[in-house]
């Protein structure tokens, strides 16, 4: 079974800027159910279909498959719930740990979160100085939740 073990944090300042080049992402959801989500995503010129299970703390099942970019664009336009998630993702290594910083655009402009994938749920990680409060279990920060309740409406 594919597993994702991930922790998510708010970013408290912009001192991380300039550490890495960003990649533009667009993503939408074909299904958003409490027990599963099905997502279509473009990342630069790559495209993926991702199926995720229910979150249990920082752990959930995850299966991701590359798909043709043109088909992803069609799915995003024709079948995915709106608004789409727009963001720029930066991959920053801090003390040997890779962090993904997402700077949101569109209706979620102003929201910046950092995620880190772990090998185990108990793995200790050094926190960069720009990382703020942990929001791993706060559903309103899930990308799938930001479609129904964008950051601009908070």
Description:
- It is a single chain.
- The mean pLDDT is 94.
- This protein has 2 helices and 9 strands.
- It has a single domain, classed as Hypothetical Protein Pfu-838710-001, CATH 2.40.320.10.
- It has an 8-stranded antiparallel barrel.
- The protein is mainly beta.
- The longest helix is centred in the middle third of the chain and has 10 residues, at 69-78.
- 23% of the residues are buried.
- The protein is 10% helix and 47% strand.
Please outline the helices and strands.
Elements: E1 3-11, E2 22-33, E3 36-43, E4 46-53, E5 59-66, H1 69-78, E6 85-94, E7 97-104, E8 112-117, E9 131-134, H2 143-148
